[in-house]
Each structure stands twice: as structure tokens, then as C-alpha cells.
């Protein structure tokens, strides 16, 4: 197969992937969206629309821009097939991107070439399958453990899962850039100590806190101090 | 009936005996209700861990597994067709599989962490598709407060809150998928024509720092709220859990950064969280 034939074949193959990717993503999305409602029927309940609206506004303000930026940055690295699979199966930054980069290094292919796209798709598909398999085996082992996990003695552990996450994540990210961290941390602590009513509104505080950290980060970046 | 009502009734000698009996009945009733409350709470957990919910989750994941297999087979065949060495393709597959095992175990620990509040099947679904542990927990917490709970607390969970939380978690992370459905083809074809811009070369852009800054903001708000709840209401448990979790993360940072044991990074968040959560149980038992 000469270069011209290779390009023609690959663009035809890529077109097929786009069609297949779009159809399967639409079906998977509809299935995921239907899940809370079907679970609601089983539990004899429906999601609260006002609760959903309040929640999605706060979540959307933070995660819609993050999702779009991730798409713009990572899609070119992953190519068509890799992108459809990565954005559906998640763990993009912490797993799919490093995994695809590693496979590309091993195969010694370059960004933008058909070979690279094929390696990326193989890598992301394999990685997604392995993750699902490991979690599946784990869940099989977890099922007999369910009565233990739901024992009331362990309730404080699961009630404090969010502080456990943000303690660990906080230290990790504060160490990555203490210069950005110091002012938002002091401001948010002072606000919550002086105005205790703000504590129950932590989900709203995330927005000004994120904005403040972004603004400080941007200023430091512009001044070349990061 | 509270103590004041009982005392008022007891002041009238004709009603005293009757009131005491009524108080007993009501106190017993309230005890029964509290036991029932625990049963309802346990019943809720068994409902969200029931077989039909496992089947719903399994059906969705099976579809995604088939999708991955189809993409894998098609890409492998296309690779062979354009003349790639089958050995290279196989090495890409095996290296990706081995690369993924450790981070997957860490994702599994996330399923365990989430399963106490949302049950095993929904945690299994959420951590197998779109997002990551940080996203799921943060959004579940935001959604829980939006439906009137004081946080993502198992002890306050009910069916409406549960389904609303799952819906917010699902919709909130769809932006990447929506962009892929409507914009990926156009975006990639534009990029393949346009040459690389010069600003992308050399030093990294602000994008690399933007995610770090965003996470710093999120963590600041949460840590500030834990300090605030300690100073205002004396509720020290969230702050202590966060500190213990941070301490374990500090140990991990020492080994991953100073001792260059980068592979440990796969476990830092999950293991730190488990230590923090275990501390919550021990402190609760000790106090």
C-alpha cells in the first residue's frame, strides 16, 4: 500500500469511526441518563427537579468549562477513536492520556499520523477494558462485603469521605503551587470562621474560591512567577 | 410528647396517672420509631444494593465493553491493513493493559469509598464511565446539599435525594461527551489542516496551571469550611479526618517526589482517604 492509498484508506476508516463513535456515544448517554429514572421507579421515587436544577447550576459552572477545556486539549492527542472512548469512559487526565502516551512511546509513532491514531485507539480501548474488568472483579468481591460496609459502625467513615478526599487532594495541590494556594486558603478559612452561615453553602463557595485561585494563578503566570 | 408537656399533665392530680401512662406509651413509641428509623436506613441500603440495580448498571457497562471491543478490533485490523507490524500493535495492547492495572485498583478503592453513601452498583457505574473519583465525590456532595441534606451523608439519604444525586452526577460530566458527539469531527479536521501555532512550543501555557488553580480553589473552600465548623460548632471530625488524610498524602509526596517512586502516585489519593476514613471510625468509637 503506497502513501496515497494509505491516506485514502485511513480517512475512510476514520469516517467510519466517527459515525460509529457518535451513534454509540448517543446510545450510551441515553442509557446513562435513563438510569436514575429507572432506579427511581425501582425505589418508588423520582429525582427532585428543583434539587436537580440547584445542583446542576453549581456543578455546571465548575465542570462544563473543565470538560470543554479537557476536550480541546486532549482530543488532538487521542485522535478520533481514542477521544470517543476516553470521553465516555473517563479518568482522562489521570489514566487515558498517560497510557496512550506510553503506548505511543513504545510504538514510536508521531502525533497526527494514522499509525499514532491507531495506537492511541488500541491503547485507550485496552485501558478502558482493563479498568472495567478490575472494577468488575472488585465489585464481585465487594458484594459479599456489602453487609460489613453498611454496618452502622462504619457510618462515620462514609460520612467523612469528602473531608478525607479534600485533605489528601488539598495537600497535593497546595504543594504543587503554594503561591496560588495561600490567599484562597486564608480567605475561605476567614470567611467560614467569621460567617459560620457560609459553611452550609460550601458548594456555592467553590465558585468564588475557584475564580480567586484562577485569577491569582493567571496574574502570577503573566508575571512569570509560576 | 416532650418533658414539658408531661410535667404540665402531671401537675393535675386527676390526669397524673393517665399522663404518666401516656408518656410511657409515647416514649416507647419514639424508641420503636428510632429502631424503625435504623431499619428504614438499612432497608434503603439494601434497596440501592439490590439485584435489579446491579442489572441496570451491568447492561450499560456491557454496552460500553462491546463498544471498546469493536473499536479495538477495527483499529487492529486497520493497523495491519496500512502495513503496521503486528508485533508493535500487540505490544501497544499489552503495555496499555499492564500500565492500567495499578491505577484501576486505585479506582476500585474509589468504588469502595463511594459505595458506603451511594451503594455498590451506582458507585460501580459512576467510576466505570466518565469522570474520576474527585469529580464524583465533589458533585455528589454538591448535589446532596442541593436536595437539602447537610452533606453526602448516608445517615440522611433517602430515595429522592439518591436519584437526584445520581442524575446531577450523570448530567454534570456530559460536556466532554456532548463536545465529542457534535464537535469532534470538525475540530480534528480543522486541526489537521492548521499548522501548529508557535505559542504551543517551548514553555507550557496557562492551561497547565488553570486546572491546578481550579483544584486549589475547590480544596480551599472545603478546608476553610472544616476549620469554620470546628470553630463555630466544635465539630472537629471533618477537620481531623482531612488532616490525617493530608498527613498520609504528605508521606506519599515524600516518596514520590523526593525518592522518585513515581508509581506510588497511583495510590496516593485512595490510600490517604482510606486512612482518613478509618480514623473517623476509630475516633467515633473512642469518644
Would you write up a description of this structure?
The complex is a heterodimer of chains A (226) and B (287). Chain A is mainly alpha-helical and 226 residues long. Chain A folds into two domains: 3-152, no CATH class; 160-222, no CATH class. Helices cover 85% and strands 0% of the residues of chain A. In chain A, 48% of the residues are buried. Chain B has 287 residues and is an all-alpha fold. Among the domains of chain B are: 1-47, no CATH class; 130-192, no CATH class; 208-287. Helix content of chain B is 81%, strand content 0%. Chain B has helices spanning 3-11, 13-48, 51-81, 86-118, 120-128, 133-146, 159-172, 175-193, 207-233, 237-258, 268-286. In chain B, helix 3 packs parallel to helix 5 (120-128). Chain B is globular. Chain B starts with a helix and ends with a helix. At the A-B interface, helix 1, helix 2, helix 3, helix 4 and helix 5 of A face helix 2, helix 3, helix 4, helix 5 and helix 6 of B.
In short:
The complex is a heterodimer of chains A (226) and B (287). Chain A is an all-alpha fold and 226 residues long. Chain A has eight helices and no strands.
User: Major sheet of chain A, described briefly?
Assistant: none
Radius of gyration of chain A in whole Å, from Cα? 22 Å
Percent helix range of chain B: over 70%
List the chains of the largest interface with their residue counts: A-B, 161 and 168 residues
Helix proportion of residues of chain A, in percent?
over 70%
Low-pLDDT runs of 5+ residues of chain A are: none
The main pleated sheet of chain B reads as: none
Number of helices of chain A: 8
Please state the overall shape of chain B, judged from the principal axes of the Cα atoms.
globular
Amino acid at each position: 500500500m503506497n502513501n496515497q492509498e494509505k491516506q485514502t484508506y485511513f480517512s475512510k476508516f476514520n469516517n467510519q469511526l466517527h459515525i460509529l463513535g457518535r451513534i454509540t456515544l448517543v446510545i450510551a448517554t441515553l442509557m446513562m441518563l435513563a438510569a436514575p429514572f429507572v432506579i427511581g421507579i425501582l425505589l418508588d421515587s423520582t429525582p427532585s427537579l428543583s434539587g436537580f436544577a440547584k445542583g446542576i447550576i453549581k456543578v455546571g459552572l465548575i465542570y462544563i468549562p473543565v470538560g470543554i477545556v479537557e476536550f480541546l486539549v486532549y482530543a488532538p492527542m487521542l485522535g478520533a477513536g481514542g477521544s470517543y472512548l476516553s470521553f465516555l469512559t473517563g479518568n482522562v487526565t489521570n489514566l487515558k492520556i498517560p497510557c496512550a502516551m506510553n503506548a505511543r512511546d513504545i510504538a514510536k509513532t508521531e502525533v497526527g499520523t494514522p499509525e499514532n491514531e491507531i495506537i492511541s485507539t488500541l491503547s485507550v480501548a485496552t485501558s478502558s477494558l482493563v479498568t472495567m474488568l478490575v472494577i468488575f472483579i472488585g465489585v464481585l468481591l465487594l458484594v459479599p462485603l456489602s453487609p460489613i460496609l453498611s454496618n452502622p459502625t462504619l457510618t462515620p467513615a462514609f460520612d467523612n469521605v469528602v473531608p478525607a478526599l479534600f485533605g489528601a487532594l488539598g495537600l497535593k495541590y497546595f504543594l504543587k503551587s503554594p503561591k496560588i494556594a495561600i490567599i484562597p486558603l486564608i480567605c475561605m478559612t476567614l470567611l467560614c470562621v467569621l460567617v459560620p452561615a457560609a459553611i452550609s453553602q460550601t458548594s456555592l463557595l467553590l465558585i468564588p474560591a475557584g475564580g480567586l485561585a484562577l485569577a491569582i494563578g493567571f496574574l502570577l503566570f503573566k508575571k512569570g512567577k509560576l | 410528647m416532650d418533658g414539658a408537656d408531661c410535667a404540665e399533665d402531671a401537675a393535675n392530680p386527676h390526669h397524673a396517672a393517665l399522663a404518666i401512662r401516656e408518656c410511657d406509651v409515647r416514649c416507647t413509641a419514639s424508641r420503636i420509631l428510632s429502631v424503625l428509623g435504623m431499619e428504614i436506613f438499612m432497608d434503603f441500603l439494601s434497596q440501592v444494593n439490590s439485584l435489579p440495580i446491579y442489572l441496570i448498571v451491568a447492561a450499560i457497562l456491557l454496552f460500553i465493553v462491546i463498544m471498546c471491543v469493536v473499536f479495538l478490533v477495527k483499529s487492529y485490523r486497520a493497523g495491519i491493513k496500512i502495513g503496521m507490524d503486528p508485533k508493535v500493535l500487540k505490544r501497544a495492547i499489552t503495555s496499555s493493559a499492564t500500565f492500567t492495572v495499578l491505577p484501576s485498583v486505585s479506582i476500585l478503592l474509589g468504588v469502595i469509598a463511594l459505595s458506603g453513601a451511594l451503594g455498590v452498583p451506582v458507585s460501580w457505574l459512576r467510576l466505570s464511565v466518565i469522570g474520576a473519583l474527585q469529580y464524583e465525590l465533589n458533585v455528589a456532595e454538591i448535589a446532596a446539599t442541593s436536595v437539602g441534606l447537610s452533606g453526602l451523608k448516608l445517615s440522611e439519604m433517602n430515595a429522592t435525594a439518591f436519584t437526584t444525586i445520581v442524575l446531577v452526577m450523570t448530567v454534570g460530566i456530559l460536556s466532554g461527551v456532548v463536545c465529542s458527539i457534535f464537535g469532534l469531527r470538525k475540530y480534528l479536521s480543522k486541526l489537521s489542516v492548521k499548522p501548529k501555532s508557535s505559542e504551543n512550543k517551548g514553555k507550557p501555557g496557562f492551561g497547565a496551571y488553570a486546572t491546578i488553580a481550579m483544584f486549589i480553589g475547590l480544596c480551599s473552600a472545603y478546608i476553610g469550611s472544616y476549620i469554620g465548623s470546628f470553630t463555630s460548632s466544635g465539630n472537629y471530625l471533618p477537620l481531623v479526618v482531612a488532616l490525617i488524610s493530608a498527613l498520609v498524602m504528605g508521606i506519599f509526596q515524600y516518596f514520590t517526589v523526593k525518592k522518585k517512586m513515581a508509581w506510588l502516585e497511583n495510590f496516593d489519593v485512595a490510600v490517604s482517604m482510606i486512612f482518613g476514613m478509618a480514623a473517623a471510625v476509630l475516633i467515633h468509637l473512642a469518644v
